[in-house]
Amino acid sequence: TMRLSGTVGSIGKDVLEEVYITFAGEEFAITSVQCYFSDEAQIEKVMELQEGDTITSVSYTHLRAHETEL
Q: Phi-psi category of 17—alpha, beta or left, where left has phi over 0 and alpha has psi -120 to 50?
């Protein structure tokens, strides 16, 4: 289990239409933390977010499956 709190930097979909958020980092940072969401209930919560919102994301990894929740 991993818990990450911070500020939403961006919200989007990748080329496979998978929903993700990034956490805001340093102004000129090259990398950032991305969290992907597959559960429809969680995707609905993500779509209610705005850049600059403060959130806590909890990720669970079970062998090869991975789930992220807000």
A: left
